[in-house]
User: Fold this.
Amino acid sequence: MRRLVLATVLSFLVSPIAALAAGEVNVYSSRHYDSDDELYALFTEQTGIEVNIIEGNTDELITRLEREGDLSPGDIFIAVDAGRLHKAVEADLLQPTQSDVLAERIPETLRHPDGLWFGYSKRARVFVTSPDIDADFVTTYAELADSKLEGSLVIRSSSNIYNQSLVAAMIARYGTEATQNWVDGMVENFARRPQGGDRDQIRAVAAGEGDLAVVNHYYFARMLAGSDAADREAAGKLTLIWPDQQGDGVHVNVSGAGMLKNAPNAENAKALLEFLASNEAQKLWALANFEYPVVEDSSLELPDVLVGFGTFKSDSVNAAKLGENNREAVRVMDRAGWR
Amino acid sequence: MTQSLAMRRRLAKLWPGVWPATCFAVSAIVAIPLLTVLASVFQSSDGEWSHLAETRLGDYVRNTLWLAVLVVSITLVVGTATAWLIETCDFPGRKTFRWMLLLPLAVPAYLSAYAYTDLLQFSGPVQTSLREAFGWGRRDYWFPEVRSVGGAAVILALSLFPYVYVAARTAFAEHAASAMEVGRTLGRGPWRCFLTVALPLARPALAAGGALVLMETLADFGAADYCAVDTFATGIYRTWRGLESPVAAAQLSAVLLGAVSLLVLVDLLARRRRRFHGVSRASRPMRKVRLGWRGATAAIVVCGLPVVLGFVLPALIFGHMAWTAGDARAREVVLDFGFNTLWLAAASGVIAGGLALLVAFGRRVSKSRTVRSAGRFAGLGYALPGTVVAIGVLVPLGWLDHAVNDATRSLFDWRPGLIFTGSVLAVMLAYQTRFLGVALGMVESGMTRIRRNVDDAARSLGTSGGRLLVRIHLPLLRGSLLAAMLLVFVDVAKELPATLMLRPFDFETLAVRVYQLASDERLEEASLGALAIIGVGLLPVIVLSGLLESRRRSQTHA
Assistant:
């Protein structure tokens, strides 16, 4: 009797968790696009498996997962940055998924060697410049520290993960000391105190507050193809530059997913991970946001905006390095006084 | 007989009585997250602390101090000036402004920050049209920078000044008439009366309002972050995420908590031995000074500007965005998330009101210094950023979850799962930790207006503690209690970081939705959610304004 009462009381308290029974998959996601909801609806339609989502910032999700430990109801972890996927690996939150489908469809460089996570879209950190300046103005990341850029570089705060990952990638390429010099030089070139988001940087260049912005390519694409007339006009005046095309290639990051270590619905989780590599899913995951799909399939047509950007060479820095060097990157930026 | 009396005395020493004990227990539960944060001081941060001290800490301290000084000064000036005009002068529109001045309370500072940076930055519509109109280039003109300490201070002040306004109005309504009369008979002009009589009498109320503003400012993350100002609150977040040092982040929070405790202590010492009761409860309605056209115009500007800038303009900006762009899923999202926001805020408000009543009453009837300090400690969470409170909640509740599961597994071979961290309980605890201070402030200030001799008389007639609370205090506190619940309601509806971190599966609130869209630079899509937050915030503002009116009327007719 006592057990019954206890169970009743507890199950009342836990009702939101008890609802997560069979036929479901629980996703901890730091992506929050409306197209993602369509994506999950499509998955449910095809498989009958319900998708429960908890969204949040990646670091908060990681903290939460660590606290939940083996009691966590989470099956899948989704992050928009390879550095964060690596953090989840470091925190020992992920387990390998063996899947021929994933091995075949996702290029080796864009997934974890042991299958702990899989990249599902590529995002490149590019330059956007005013057409008033000549085309060869700046073509490499190294040149961002060149004094010819003095007073003309606009970029967001060092608290932003995209900048942290860029600096982490440079540390992987050139070491901490050289990267420190590079970052110091960049800070000298800032046109204004770092502020706002990537779209704000693009708008600033369009308005003439600076000559060159460092941004993720899809923000530029979204402005070009978006519904805001002023943004469309502003972005339309500008040019996209793929950095380091003669060298190591443009810095790319992935957004991706992996199976959580204590996944109570591991089979469903695997089904979802495989589904994400399907053509329909790639359209919703990557193309709906103007990111580049990871699956190479001729039936996946790029939107006109991305076709207009042309082809590019990506860097080969292992995504795991971004996570390993993240802390060092922040220290480097702190020392340089990059807000 | 004497033996049993001695026994009772000894017992009384050990067991301070049910009310103080309840007060202590409530405070302890709410204080657990704070203590968790404080405990971090004894952990090693692996050199992050010295790195911070060498690089960023100076900025955090400087900016936080500047922001606090500016916001408190602006809110005190605006709140006092508007309250004084409303309570003592007569000018066209006064009755409308009386409640409109509360409206900015419904607009969270981070929403104003979204709206104003978008409007006023270099590439925004205002500066762009200026450049186009006059053919200016980048360095041809000066324009105030929105993304600066000054900009953030103005934005925060615009959404926080109603705290001072409410406090000042109550004080002026109670004291102004009789005080002014005394002053006038002594031959002083209105300015001197205001400065030498009314203002000093209103000081405790202004200090209480200013303290709320100060705490909100210290804990603000959204507005400072959006305005590119590095404060303790944004620094804590960055240290935790960027430097990946939760320990150093918690230590930063402990420093902040220490500073706040110090302020509270100073305030306590300053107010020692002083009890502020109304000069006279039955003060007559004050005859209002009719302003000439010049004075009236000035009064309209002084009262109108904060309303326009703090409410009308941000609401219009979001309205415009929602109208021109908007969010395809908006209606469904707003209804769904709006419902969650509403019930979460309402439940938290009611709980906070109840707990505040217990703590305040316990502190009043207790002679134990420990109990009284515990009650005060329970209110400190207000100055901590939601992120920090969330960490403080996750650690002990996570531990509790595991303990419960281990126990049930060994006893019944059954695991209930995450009872605490996986349900609304965690969010609820975080809200109480963060906002009990607001409710407590309201209820305690209401309680100080109940004279001690009321308690003594009731006691001497043999009234028990419970009866005293329910039959005598509660009716007298009705207004303060309602105000306390409403303030917590608004705060919870606006709260962001703790909700973001602690909410259960498939549980979204308006603030979370808006933040996620805005942080993804999709402000247009966030606009309808933003309007909905403002709408939800309006509900208690309306009630609060009605409450202030009825209190005023009951006082003037008493």
